[in-house]
Amino acid sequence: MTGDFGATPAVDFPTPLKTETSQLAEIIPGTGQPVVKGQKVKVDLSVYNGTTGETLQESAYDGSTQSGIVISDQTIAGLSNALECAQVGSRLAVVVSPDDAFGPQGGSADLGIAATDTIVFVIDVVKSYLTRANGAAQPAENGLPAVVLAEDGTPGITVPSATPPTELQVGVLKKGTGATVKEGEPVTVAYSGVVWGEKTAFDSTWTTGVPAEFLAADGSKTQGGVIPGFAEALIGQTVGSQIVAVIPPDQAYGDQVSGPIPANSTLVFVVDILGVN
């Protein structure tokens, strides 16, 4: 294999390439922080069918087609295991065995991978995101929901018994020192959301273990955006911050039901801002 980090690699391997255990080689050492479980990374990658040598996917290696991968049980095991502890700036070559790829699913017809095929990855680890907000704690603001964090960072939210506010309210619980979120920019966050007056979260990335990425923009005007109050709460905040946002119905879902959220609901979100693109 030849090629510099950040450039399309020239890859050659004998076919069919078979293995019963996944294999990892660091082709170019990185100097950044090691990746940990639960973390999101952005990568350039080239993917090959180890049986046929066919190229299944290849990044443009110009920053335009990088893939986001979360090191979790929801990522194929051979890839997740290879990335865990890899350093940002490294190029990896990974041969993933059939059992560590799609396992009992028996391959992937959509990707052109049979049940007995190995998968070969060449991965440039370009960027890593925070796993939780790491900013400095800020004084609590009166009238906002109280937030207590579990050891793993999962927020517990206690909503006041008072009548919910009719205007958007945003409090900074931790102040990060990273980049500022700009309108329309892709942002990666961890969050929990509850309906005012309820005790159980209707949605939480802390439960799924997978951060969310979307545009910091009004989703009614911009594809890939979010409800207006959520977008407004994020814009101008900094990476590493944790915020609590109380969003009235007219900046949420209004008089519409949305999944488990009743019509005319005031929503409360606690959000860790993990990174921007």
What does this molecule look like?
The chain folds into two domains: 23-128, Chitinase A, domain 3; 136-276, Chitinase A, domain 3 (Roll), CATH 3.10.50.40. The chain is built from four helices and 15 strands. It has helices spanning 77-83, 98-101, 205-208, 228-234; strands at residues 23-28, 40-49, 55-58, 67-70, 91-96, 119-128, 136-137, 146-149, 155-158, 169-175, 186-195, 203-204, 212-215, 242-247, 267-276. The chain is 8% helix and 32% strand. The protein starts with 22 loop residues before the first strand and ends with a strand.
In short:
With 277 residues, this protein is mostly beta strands.
Spell out the blueprint of helices and strands.
Elements: E1 23-28, E2 40-49, E3 55-58, E4 67-70, H1 77-83, E5 91-96, H2 98-101, E6 119-128, E7 136-137, E8 146-149, E9 155-158, E10 169-175, E11 186-195, E12 203-204, H3 205-208, E13 212-215, H4 228-234, E14 242-247, E15 267-276
Antiparallel strand pairs: 1-5, 2-3, 2-4, 2-6, 5-6, 7-10, 8-9, 10-14, 11-12, 11-13, 11-15, 14-15
The end-to-end distance, rounded to whole angstroms, is 29 Å
- Given helix and strand content, the structural type is mainly beta
- Output the number of helix runs: 4
**Average predicted confidence as pLDDT:** 95
Biggest β-sheet strands, sense, barrel: 7 strands, antiparallel
Question: What is the CATH topology descriptor of the largest domain?
Answer: Chitinase A, domain 3
Unreliably modeled segments: none
Order of helices and strands, N to C? EEEEHEHEEEEEEEHEHEE
Strand portion: 25-35%
Domain count, please report it: 2
Silhouette: elongated
CATH class of the largest domain: Alpha Beta
Radius of gyration: 21 Å
Share of helix, binned? under 10%
Q: What's the total number of strands?
A: 15
What CATH architecture of the largest domain would you give? Roll
